[in-house]
Amino acid sequence: MSTALIRNVAVEVDGDGQAVVCIHGLGGSSNNWTPVLSAFEGMKVVRPELPGSARSALASQPLSIDLYVDTLASVLGELGVSKAHVVAHSMGTIVAQHLAVKHPELVKSLALFGPLLAPPDQGRPGIQARAALSREKGIAGVQEIADVIVKAATSAETKAQRPVTLALVRESVMRQSPEGYAQSCEALAGAQAAEVEKISVPTLLVTGDEDGVGPPAAVKAMGERIAGSKVRVLSGCGHWTTFEKPAECAEELKAFYQSMQ
């Protein structure tokens, strides 16, 4: 496994075979996918960290979904990846949908965890407030946000039985730089839905029964707009799908890829 900086984006690349590109969400990193790497056996796994997130530097212009999409397309070009399976979580699922619509030639399939089309209008001010808190209080503000996310975005089962998962979610958010996290929040707050009816590749949508960001009813409605998509709802799972239910997520991915063979 190696990590390279490509257009100021930290990218982990491992393995050979068909490419799979893994896109994390807000407050995430390449490690969102570490628990499910077994599902990608025999594939070339590309795990970028979005501009402004984790180890990647901020871009020279404000972060946005469009900027993420264009950056990922450029990174794939630099790596010589002409077509890839795309796996994404949370905000990353919005990026993946726009990538599939804008660059259909690059996308072989979509597997979206905790997916959403765009933030609901009533949720956008709260995301903007997180950006303001991150800028105002710096690392202390990011810690406050991390503690709230641990409480609000994980399932009751995770809180009761998986303390290491709680620590991992908290660490993932706390490792973000205050300005990078603030701009990432602003990118999410400004996100608009892609024209998902144009998506024609095999698509898997996985959410948790306690996921408030990608609630099952909304994910099922989303699936109805993507022809031939499959929806799976994991029991006892909140929004941090691959951290909370890694074995189940890996099995869903393995079955999804096997179905395309």
Automatic annotation (TrEMBL):
User: What GO CC annotations are associated with the protein?
Assistant: membrane
Instruction: Provide a Gene Ontology MF annotation, just one.
Output: monoacylglycerol lipase activity
- Known SUPFAM superfamilies for this protein? alpha/beta-Hydrolases (SSF53474)
Q: Can you give the residue ranges of the AB hydrolase-1 domain? A: 19-246
Asked if the keyword Hydrolase belongs to this entry, the reply reads yes
Ion transport among the record's keywords? no
- One Pfam entry for this protein is Abhydrolase_1
Domain of life the protein comes from:
Bacteria
Query: What processes in GO biological process is this protein linked to?
Result: acylglycerol catabolic process
Q: Which UniProt keywords apply?
A: Hydrolase
Protein name, per record: Alpha/beta hydrolase
Phylogenetic placement of the source organism: Bacteria, Pseudomonadati, Pseudomonadota, Betaproteobacteria, Burkholderiales
